[in-house]
Amino acid sequence: MTDNQNTAKKRKALILLSSATQLPLRLPVEIGSISTGFFLVELAQILKEFEKDYEFTFCTPDGHTPQLDINGMSLPFMATSKLTKATISQMLSHKSFAEHHPELVERRTEELELAYRHLGALSVSEILPHTDPEAASMRNDLVTAFSQRPTKPYLSAQSLVEKHRDPNDDFSIADFDFIHLPGGHAPMVDFRDSPWLGEIINLAYENNVILSMICHAPIAMTSARFRIDQSGQPKDYPNHPFIGATITTVPKHGELIALSVSYPKIPDHKTRLTYYVDVALKEVGYNVETTLDAGAIKVIWDPALKLLTSNGPQSIDVQAKQLRAIVG
User: Fold this and answer.
1) CA distances from 40 to 36, 43, 68, 219, 297 (A)
2) 269 HSE (CA, 13 A, CB side)
3) DSSP character for 222?
4) Of 173, 276, 294, 302, which has fewest CB within 10 angstroms of its CB?
5) What span, in angstroms and rounded, lies between the C-alpha atoms of 135 and 52?
6) How far is C-alpha 291 from the geometric centre of its chain's CA atoms?
7) CB under 8 Å to 145, separation ≥6 — which residues?
8) Do the beta carbons of residue 108 and residue 97 sit within 8 Å?
């Protein structure tokens, strides 16, 4: 059987990534922004779970290539459901953590191989003052490894909608079983209040396509209140079907912890983001459920809306299994 015949038999999924590379800060004013990107751990398990029987299409809001966040390479994130325990263990063991957890190193290596294969050449975010030193030590090798990969095409949200509408193009959003949106801080920049993303989200609902979002990616649901008219102009869509939906995301209190002790923290400065995802979602009418323990697993499935959300990298394995069960 030829490769083309194999591909033709595969089901289809859309991966919608942020292409943002800088995360604006409210404080400190003199810094302005920090380097950012998407978290591979929040995508790789989906690629691993579905690559044998799915063909992936990749999209970013502007069609630019996404940037990998080096901070997402920190080994405790690879522990997923045991994230909190692994984070504490790393803090106590320092340099010996990787030696004591070869299974996490192996998972990270496997996830990078998935990225090389599916995502192609990527840039890697800059090292920040509080980037995990073990992850930071990988950056130069990752930059080299990704630079040697072929450049892969990424559709823009606009081109995806236009292809869907083009009667001469056999492309259709209805052909996708699901759309997965990984997190990391990058989605805070280009997923919020985006009319073209709003059109995709509403088309997914109208075409019975599952929406899967993790960590910061549910901020994309602020975009559901917009559509794109037939002339390509954005328009308000206040009565969209997702109004009042129950979803989850990274909580503000978890974000504040990270801004105090983790990689976004600017040394010797109070560090604050321009907004918080859960607050922004509540402001536009969503019922947002979070966990007191920011490292606890939270996954919410709304079968009527075909909307699956989770609260961070600790939940990705559960989310991938649930997504598989849903699509069959």
Assistant:
1) 12, 5, 7, 18, 18
2) 17
3) G
4) 302
5) 29
6) 19
7) 112, 116
8) no
* Partners of 179 in beta bridges: 14, 211
Which helix (H) or strand (E) element contains residue 5? helix 3-9
Each residue's pLDDT tens digit, 2-19: 445 455 689 999 999 999
Tens digit of each residue's pLDDT (9 = 90 or more) over 18-47: 999 999 999 999 999 999 999 999 999 999
Where does residue 116 fall: left (phi above 0), alpha (psi -120 to 50 degrees), or beta otherwise? alpha
pLDDT of residue 224: 98
Interval 281-297: pLDDT, tens? 999 999 999 999 999 99
Contact criterion met (CB below 8 Å) for 17 and 182: yes
Residues 71, 28 contacting (CB under 8 angstroms): no
b/e per residue, 144-174, with b = 16+ CB within 10 A?
ebbeeeeeeebbbbbebbbebbeeeeeeebe
3-state secondary structure of 270: coil
